Amino acid sequence: MKDHYRCFEDLRQGEEEGVDYRVTVTDRNAAVAVVAPHGGWIEPRTSQIATAIAGSDYSLYCFEGLRPRPHAELHITSTRFDEPVCLALLARTQTVLTVHGTATTWPLVEVGGLDMTRRDLVAAHLAQAGFPVDVREHGRNAGRSPDNICNRGTTRRGVQLEISDGLRKAYYRGERDPQPLADAVRRAIAAASGHRM
User: Domain limits at 61?
Assistant: First the structure.
């Protein structure tokens, strides 16, 4: 589906901040930033999952749709996502991990991005925690473009998570706790940095 807005400036002129969307950022001066570029009503529950992954250790950025409406109206494709607060944060952050949602109806986490070491660690930790995982090497949801927001940290290599609608709905219905997924990702990030968590 084609985006309604080609860039953030177009969106800013057509929407009202605080009514249609909001930007939140917590800059912890960390080496890792967790980003939900399609949070709120755009790809529901991705903001909450990103917040749980960031915890109190990693920087956090969320762009959130505030009203239930067709999500494409506020969706800016990851390769064109250029909201200035986000870009400023990533310009001083080594590694970016983005959290997205897909329309897949069964539980699945697709893992992509140019940081193959962290990508594979995240996939392995998620699988170990019992989550169905698909490592994406090519095509849609692989996060391989250098312009993808997940690859815009200073290392120019990051990780992209695409969490299925089936899994996210289980979270907002209260059927599953999102913390085990967040904890698995956090363990992978720590392992990649040589830390214990």
Answer: 8-191
